[in-house]
Design a protein that fits this description.
Structural class of chain A: mainly alpha
Distance between the termini of chain A: 64 Å
Strand content of chain B: 15-25%
Number of strands of chain B: 16
Strand content of chain A: under 5%
Largest interface: A-B, 20 and 26 residues
Radius of gyration of chain A: 21 Å
Largest sheet of chain A: none
Mean pLDDT of chain B: 85
Helix content of chain A: over 70%
Number of strands of chain A: 0
Number of helices of chain A: 13
Number of helices of chain B: 20
Structural class of chain B: alpha/beta
Order of helices and strands of chain A: HHHHHHHHHHHHH
CATH superfamily of the largest domain in chain B: P-loop containing nucleotide triphosphate hydrolases
Oligomer: heterodimer
Distance between the termini of chain B: 16 Å
Chain lengths: 274, 417
């Protein structure tokens, strides 16, 4: 049996990329760092009580009273176990990853829904992104972006973006053929069709993708902390490495609370049944 | 002797109308072939290759050499069973489906040659469509749905809502502007579909099985309403259906399709009376003929007729020659005066009088040619004479015997004896 030297070629490729595309990676690094830092600056700069109010009001408006109460209690618990700073820095990372996933993922999903060739080309890449163990691309991410929050954000984006791409693609493809036909019959151009018919009708599905993307990026928190992205992942990691179960649990609890709040809010974002 | 042209020249009606009315839309040699390489198969189809032969090569013929004209302001029905290609044909007209070959000419403009931009403009202004499953936008309320066509034309929100309200009013849905489509019944949803199509004020309205998804009673209401609206607005309507009763009810003229071929085009009566082949005949068997067949199509020419200036002797001779016991009397312009019987005429001669006006019986039932058999039947109850068909000037067109009514109901042709 011939041994295929795939690993060897991957290493060569990574080396080549690191050497030749250094300026490209440092540009990405600068941009990502700027986004993460501004989110973190805003989230940690705003006093706890104001941030709490903002969260409660948004969750009340979007998801109703029960979720608002849960949000208030959850955030107070986080504050009282002294993890507010870390939670906000994790939130900044999640927000960055989500924004980038939206900016890349939704147009990509739309493109896939229009072109079957793009669809069949992108799908295996998405499979790769989702199932390749995150540790594997954590290492090259460090090669390209050094340690710190940026490689963490990149790893998070890679892992968390597939759902929003897939579900945007699915949502647009699922728009009923007769509605598309009717819009064409009335002389809609393809951009009018996209923005007035296809995206609005696909919106519930796209939002389900957004929700999953946020949840997946939260699940990357601990892994990305291994390469120094800080935040709650760092707390959990310290708990594990120093055998401090209590600390680990507190960090984990904060992740769960943040995840549940974001989940409930994004799940309720879709158009209300009238 | 009078021969009424009605009985002999059925085909002439089409030609006559063609000269008289403006053609709004004309379809010439239209083909639609589905499959990987339609243009390669087209010559085969033109040569008349069989369905199986085409299918063997991986293609399906949707529309096969369709030719017809639709006149301004008429309701033109295309009827056929599912798979006959009628939905494909109607979608070729606004190029929701690209025809493989042929021309579609609307107001002298060849639609099949339009570029993307002109086609969009054409769809926005000239032709709109009503769909079988309504195809309303589920995320928009009723007024936004109706205003959709105007919205994509770029009208301001005030303008388009104003027109949308007028359209909704026209279809009897005022008060539902803010409702969502899912809150309305099927019939109401289709009214919204109709209002949406009317809102852009198109010249031509395409209706693809528009009422087929509705309950029978609601369907009947919608048909009536469509006819009323059509009388008011006089839009050219192309209406697809698989239901012959519906076709006969709403259609001014009907095209019957089978396997992508238009097998017959004609008025309801032409289709019923002279089915061009067995397929059409089979189609027409279940029709409630009493509603559709008109007096004009079952009337016969009178065997004999006397003029009011003729004397009793002429009348008697004509009756004897034709072995009949009574004869209708007309004036010089062939306006009906009444009827005389042979007994009365003989009595008149016995008393040496000649003027048949003395014995004329004016109690004759008259109808116009477009009255249906259903409405004709009661007239025979109070009359021992045949019913006379007259035109608007009371000119005698023909006569109807009880037996012809029965024959008409059974679909037997007894007009040519």
């Amino acid at each position: 049996m011939i041994r295929l030297p795939i690993g060897y070629y991957v290493e060569k490729a990574i080396d080549w990329l690191t050497y030749n595309l250094d300026s490209f990676f440092s540009m990405i690094k600068t941009i990502l760092l700027a986004i993460i830092n501004s989110f973190e600056f805003i989230f940690t700069g705003i006093p706890f009580i104001v941030m709490l109010l903002i969260f409660v009001i948004i969750s009340w408006k979007v998801a109703g009273r029960n979720v608002a109460i849960f949000t208030a209690i959850g955030l107070v618990i986080i504050k009282s176990i002294n993890l507010w700073q870390q939670t906000m820095s994790t939130f900044a990372l999640v927000a960055t990853a989500t924004v980038i996933a939206i900016v890349i993922g939704i147009p990509l999903g739309i493109w896939m829904s229009f072109r079957d060739t793009v669809n069949s080309f992108v799908r295996p890449i998405l499979d790769f992104m989702q199932t390749m163990p995150a540790f594997v691309y954590l290492i090259p991410a460090v090669y390209f972006f050094d340690l710190g929050p940026v490689p963490g954000a990149v790893a998070t984006i890679i892992f968390a973006m597939p759902p929003i791409v897939r579900l945007t693609n699915l949502g647009i493809r699922q728009v009923a053929e007769d509605v598309i036909e009717a819009s064409r019959a009335f002389g809609a151009t393809s951009s009018q069709m996209l923005f007035k018919v296809q995206i609005p009708l696909a919106m519930p599905t796209i939002l389900a993708g957004l929700n999953q993307t946020i949840m997946l990026s939260l699940s990357m928190v601990v892994i990305s902390a291994m390469i120094g992205s800080g935040g709650l992942g760092d707390v959990v990691l310290r708990g594990i490495t120093q055998m401090r179960v209590g600390l680990g649990f507190e960090g984990g609890l904060a992740v769960v609370i943040l995840a549940m709040i974001l989940d409930r809010i994004t799940q309720s974002l879709g158009p209300k049944e009238k | 002797m009078y021969y009424l042209c009605y009985f002999t020249e059925n085909n002439s009606i089409d030609a006559y109308e063609g000269n008289d009315r403006m053609v709004k839309l004309e379809v010439k040699n239209l083909y639609k072939i589905f499959g990987p390489n339609p243009s390669k198969i087209l010559p085969l189809v033109k040569e008349g290759a069989s369905k199986e032969e085409i299918q063997k090569r991986g293609h399906v013929v949707g529309v096969n050499n369709a030719n017809f004209s639709v006149y301004e302001g008429e309701i033109f029905v295309i009827m056929g069973l599912s798979g006959s290609g009628k939905s494909t044909l109607i979608r070729c007209l606004n190029r929701l489906i690209e025809p493989t070959a042929g021309e579609i000419i609307v107001d002298g403009q060849n639609i099949s040659g339009l570029g993307t931009k002109e086609l969009t403009e054409f769809r926005r202004k000239k032709m709109s469509m009503v769909f079988q499953n309504f195809a309303l936008l589920p995320h928009r309320n009723i007024e936004e749905n109706v205003a959709f066509g105007l919205e994509i034309q770029g009208l301001s929100i005030e303008e388009r809502l104003k027109i949308a309200y007028e359209s909704l009013d026209m279809v009897g849905l005022s008060g539902y502007e803010k409702a969502m489509p899912s809150e309305l019944s099927g019939g109401m949803q289709q009214r919204v579909g109709l209002a949406r199509a009317l809102a852009t004020n198109p010249d031509i309205l395409l209706m693809d099985e528009a009422f087929s998804a509705l309950d029978p009673l609601i369907r009947k209401d919608m048909q009536d309403e469509l006819i009323t609206l059509h009388d008011k607005m006089r839009k050219t309507i192309i209406f697809i259906t698989h239901d012959l009763d519906e076709a006969l009810k709403v259609g001014d003229r009907i095209a019957i399709m089978k396997d992508g071929v238009i097998v017959q085009v004609g008025s309801s009566e032409e289709i019923l009376e002279n089915p061009s082949n067995d397929y059409v005949k089979e189609f027409t068997q279940d029709v409630n003929r009493a509603k559709v067949i008109t007096a004009a199509s079952i009337m016969k020419k009178a065997d004999a007729i006397v003029y009011s200036r003729d004397g009793a002797r002429v009348a008697v001779r004509k009756m004897r020659d034709n072995s009949i016991s009574s004869v209708f009397v007309v004036d010089r312009e062939r306006r009906l005066k009444g009827i005389i019987t042979i007994d009365d005429a003989l009595n008149l001669i016995k008393t040496n009088r000649e003027d048949i006006l003395e014995i004329i019986d004016t109690n004759v039932q008259t109808v116009s040619g477009d009255v249906s058999i259903q409405d004709l039947i009661p007239l025979f109850i109070n009359s021992k004479y045949p019913v006379v068909v007259v035109d608007e000037n009371q000119k005698m067109q023909g006569i109807i015997f009880k037996a012809s009514v029965l024959a008409g109901l059974l679909g037997e042709d007894d007009t040519n004896d």
